[in-house]
Every structure is written in structure tokens, then in C-alpha cells.
């Protein structure tokens, strides 16, 4: 499967795509609105970053306690229920006078729900599409994330001006409920991928099985740590430049859109393997310019360029699918999502704490340098010949004309 036409003609992909897109728009508007609300009320860069990315911290609890549910719940019902729960939680966040502890309690609950929802979602994608269509489908979803984030941050900025942070939160809540309706109406009922009841013991057992493979361990670390640290850089956009934070977020989303378009649609496998390492380096390098406290246009250009490097995650996810048995793919992909979101939350907290004692620009620079160091340390285990040997695939597919 190589064309968008083939992809969208696949039964159920269109309603699945719309559901995911509306969910992203909802979370984007909600994140910007809540971060702004918390920053206005507390003046704390740390609390602002945690309010925007804090739900990611709950992913580690979901990954260790609840993730076996990703393969053991009916996908349509689970997708709709998670979207509805997050929509309702976002509406509660808009209640005036809500204590800060209650805000973070709601974010914790939302994070637990979405940790299961991520596994359900990407496991369902692997069911809807044939194996040779997964990368294209995942790239289109990532492109949708970029597009919806651009639209969400732009819309969120307008809503913050025209309405208020609470008005923007209510808009995000309505979008969450709409996503639940789309899932319930557009997806077909399917049985769970695996028989049995979800349990903590089963979650741990399958996670140990996934983690037992050295190749998968390297892939997980490469998917989680450098990515998370770069999101830690992004979490400081509001304290770095409150007046242009929406622009910086939108440019970062635009860069991700560019990268996923190129990787998902236009790069054959032999070129994807060769570009994986440069893309992983690109993810952090441009943020080093923040050492010189760049103006908004230069900061926006750096965010755009760096986010093209997020396409490296798409290539690593393709390898992860090839290394994972079908009956646990939901949990494998959910573990990837939960791990990345957890590290994003941890990195946001660390970057926010660092900014408290230095400055936002310094914290962004140091966090990007840490991401780059981890990428270089993991590089030997991600060489194409090592990953493809673990998959049992030829090192590269022949290039057109018999070349390599």
C-alpha cells in the first residue's frame, strides 16, 4: 500500500482517522488553555509545563498496571469511552476556583485513560490496515497530529483572546465528546484481539516479554528518551516567549507534518534506513540555538527544523511492528506510546525545574544537548544491519535499477 487513495478506501480507516484527528484537536486546545491558565494564576514555569504535559506522567502507571486492557477490550467501545472520559474531565477543568491539586488529579485520571486508549488505537490501526500499509497509515495519523496541532494552537490562541482560558477548555471538551460520537458511529464492532481479562499480572507478564528482546529494548529507548527530552524543550515555549508561544507550537507541529509526509509517502525502505540516523540527530540539534536567546522568527525556524526529526520515530515504530507478534501488538504499541508520553512528562518537569533556577533559554539548550547525547549513545544498536537482522529481513531492498 503506497498511495493515500488506497489508504482512505480501506474500510473503517476514514472514521478512525477522523476520530483521532478530533481527539488531537481537543487535547491541543486544552493543553494550551490550561498551561496559560496555570501560568497566569501561579507565575510558575514548572507548574505551567506540568499542566500541559503532566498527563503524560500518568502514562507510566497505565503502562505498568492497565495496559493489558489494550488487547482485551472491544476496540470501538474502548475508543469511544476514553474520548468521552477525557472530554468530561476537560470540562471539569474549566470550573472556576478549582484547586490546583484537583486540576492535577483530573490530569492524572486522564493520563491513565489515554494510556490504555493509545494501545487500543494503534492496535486497531494494525487490524484495519494490512501490514504493508501500517507505516503509511501511521504517517497519515502523524500528519493529522501536526495539522490538528497547528489548527489547535492557532484556534486556541484566538479562543484565549476572544473568550478566556476557561472558554477554550469548554471548546476542547466539546471536541472530546464529538470524538467519542465519531468512534461509536463510524467504527465497526470487533472482538478483543486476545482472550482473557485485563489484569496487572498480565500487563507485567507481557511487558517483560516485550522488554526481553535486546532489539526491542533499544528501539523503545530510542523512541522514548530523545523524543521526550525534545518535548521538554517545547514545554518551555510559554515561559520563553508568552506572546509567541502559539506560533512556536504551531511551527513545531508544521515541522512534524513535513517529516511525516516525506517518510510515510515518498521514501522507499532503503532510503528510510539510511536517513534514520540523520533524522534522529536533527531532532535536537536546532534547539542548541536557544543558547543565544533567539528572536521569535529564528526560534520558530529552529522549532520547525527540529520537528522534522520526529519522523525518525515513525521509522523506529515500523521496526517495532516487525519485531512484535500480532497478539500483543496493541500492548507493544501502547507501551511505546505510554513510554514516550511518560518521558515527555518527566522531561517537561525537569526542564521546567531547570528553568526555575536558570532561564527558559538555558533550560531548552541543556535539555536539547541531553537529547543529542542519548541519541549518540544509542546509535550503535540502531544500525540498519542490526535491526534488520533481528527482523530476519534483508538489509535493504534493492533500489530501482538493481542498485542499493
Class by SSE composition: mainly alpha
Span of the ends, CA to CA: 22 Å
User: What's the β-strand tally?
Assistant: 0
The parts where pLDDT drops under 50 for at least 5 residues are 393-404
Strand content: under 5%
- H/E element order: HHHHHHHHHHHHHHHHHH
Structure description:
Helix 2 runs antiparallel to helix 8, helix 5 (75-93) runs antiparallel to helix 8 and helix 7 (134-162) runs antiparallel to helix 12. With 404 residues, the chain is an all-alpha fold. The chain has helices at 4-9, 13-42, 45-53, 59-65, 75-93, 100-128, 134-162, 165-186, 200-211, 214-234, 237-240, 245-266, 269-282, 296-308, 311-322, 329-357, 360-378, 384-391. The model is unreliable at 393-404 (pLDDT under 50). It is built from 18 helices and no strands.
Entry keywords:
single chain; 404 residues; mainly alpha; 18 helices; globular; disordered C terminus
Secondary structure elements and their pairing?
Blueprint: H1 4-9, H2 13-42, H3 45-53, H4 59-65, H5 75-93, H6 100-128, H7 134-162, H8 165-186, H9 200-211, H10 214-234, H11 237-240, H12 245-266, H13 269-282, H14 296-308, H15 311-322, H16 329-357, H17 360-378, H18 384-391
Helix pairs in contact: 2-3, 2-5, 2-6, 2-7, 2-8, 3-16, 4-6, 4-16, 5-6, 5-8, 6-16, 7-12, 7-15, 10-15, 10-16, 10-17, 12-14, 12-15, 13-15, 16-17
Short description:
This protein has 18 helices and no strands. With 404 residues, the protein is an all-alpha fold.
Amino acid at each position: 500500500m503506497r498511495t493515500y487513495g488506497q489508504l482512505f478506501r480501506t474500510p473503517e480507516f476514514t472514521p478512525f482517522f477522523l476520530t483521532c484527528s478530533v481527539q488531537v484537536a481537543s487535547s491541543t486546545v486544552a493543553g494550551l488553555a490550561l498551561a496559560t491558565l496555570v501560568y497566569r494564576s501561579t507565575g510558575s514555569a514548572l507548574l505551567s509545563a506540568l499542566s500541559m504535559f503532566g498527563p503524560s506522567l500518568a502514562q507510566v502507571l497505565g503502562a505498568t498496571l492497565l495496559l493489558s486492557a489494550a488487547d482485551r477490550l472491544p476496540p470501538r467501545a474502548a475508543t469511544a469511552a476514553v474520548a468521552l472520559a477525557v472530554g468530561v474531565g476537560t470540562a471539569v477543568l474549566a470550573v472556576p476556583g478549582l484547586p490546583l491539586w484537583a486540576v492535577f488529579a483530573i490530569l492524572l485520571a486522564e493520563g491513565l485513560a489515554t494510556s490504555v486508549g493509545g494501545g487500543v488505537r494503534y492496535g486497531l490501526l494494525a487490524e484495519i490496515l494490512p501490514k504493508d500499509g501500517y507505516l503509511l497509515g501511521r504517517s497519515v495519523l502523524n500528519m493529522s497530529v501536526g495539522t490538528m496541532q497547528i489548527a489547535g494552537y492557532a484556534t486556541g490562541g484566538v479562543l484565549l483572546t476572544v473568550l478566556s482560558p476557561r472558554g477554550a477548555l469548554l471548546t476542547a471538551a466539546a471536541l472530546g465528546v464529538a470524538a467519542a460520537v465519531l468512534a461509536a458511529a463510524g467504527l465497526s464492532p470487533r472482538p478483543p484481539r486476545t482472550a482473557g481479562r485485563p489484569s496487572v499480572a498480565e500487563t507485567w507478564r507481557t511487558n517483560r516479554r516485550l522488554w526481553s528482546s535486546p532489539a526491542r529494548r533499544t528501539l523503545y529507548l530510542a523512541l522514548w528518551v530523545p523524543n521526550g527530552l525534545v518535548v521538554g524543550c517545547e514545554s518551555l515555549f510559554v515561559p520563553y516567549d508568552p506572546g509567541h508561544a502559539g506560533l512556536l507550537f504551531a511551527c513545531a507541529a508544521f515541522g512534524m507534518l513535513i517529516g511525516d509526509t516525506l517518510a510515510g509517502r515518498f521514501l522507499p525502505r532503503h532510503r528510510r534506513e539510511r536517513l534514520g540516523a540523520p533524522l534522529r540527530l536533527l531532532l535536537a540539534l536546532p534547539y542548541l540555538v536557544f543558547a543565544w536567546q533567539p528572536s521569535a522568527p529564528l526560534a520558530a525556524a529552529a522549532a520547525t527544523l527540529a520537528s522534522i526529526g520526529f519522523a525518525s520515530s515513525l521509522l523506529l515504530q515500523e521496526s517495532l511492528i516487525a519485531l512484535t507478534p500480532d497478539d500483543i501488538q496493541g500492548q507493544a504499541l501502547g507501551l511505546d506510546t505510554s513510554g514516550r508520553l511518560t518521558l515527555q512528562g518527566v522531561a517537561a518537569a525537569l526542564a521546567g525545574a531547570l528553568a526555575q533556577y536558570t532561564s527558559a533559554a538555558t533550560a531548552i539548550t541543556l535539555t536539547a544537548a541531553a537529547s543529542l547525547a542519548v541519541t549518540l549513545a544509542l546509535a550503535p544498536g540502531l544500525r540498519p544491519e542490526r535491526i534488520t537482522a533481528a527482523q530476519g529481513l534483508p538489509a535493504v531492498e534493492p533500489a530501482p535499477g538493481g542498485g542499493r
